[in-house]
Amino acid sequence: MTTAGLLLAAGAGRRMGGPKALVRDANGTPWVCRALAALAGGGCAPLYVVVGAEAELVRKALGECDIRDAEIVACHDWEEGMGASLRAGLAALLDGDGDGDGDIWRGGDVPAALVHLVDLPDVDERVVARVRAVGEGRAALARAAYLGVPGHPVLLGADHWEGVIASAVGDRGARDYLRERRVELVECGDLATGADVDVTATS
Q1: pTM of whole model > 0.85?
Q2: CA distance to 56, 127, 144, per residue, from 189 (Å)
Q3: Is 80 exceeded by the pLDDT of residue 182?
Q4: Which residues, 6 or more positions from 66, have their beta carbon under 8 angstroms from its beta carbon?
Q5: Which domains are delineated in the chain?
């Protein structure tokens, strides 16, 4: 049993002035690589990265990552918002190879997915590992909290994937789905702020 890592990196980052996946930290590391490393270091496998805005540049940046075995998922309607990215990523997990033709179904051997965002630069592998440790079952439903405020990453058992796909619209992602269910909050405020960065880059 494993928990898949699903990284949403399809946004245009308009307030940032460009895709946040391409922002580099003080060491020159693209945020997409840092977020992917957090998922891998926290024990997630397999890894999926959803790309959209400036997809070719993000793919090129992924070539700089130490982790090279992530499945890249194209989100063609990324302009709709986070909901589109989440739908594309979960559909790829259900399909298995990301091409949308339904020829492989991996739900049986990947019982849960940990959804992470590319614009949370201080969320590292320790946060990922703590949330993942809640459980890897198909019914799992949990998310990180920072001083009691719900945030990311979010753990979604496979039993919830189709429901999230059906409800994820605009920039709300899984918010509506989670609001109607009992979600375990995993306090991580001692490890990170969990704050998303919209305007200026941080190291």
Answers
A1: yes
A2: 35, 9, 9
A3: yes
A4: 33, 37
A5: 3-187 (3.90.550.10)
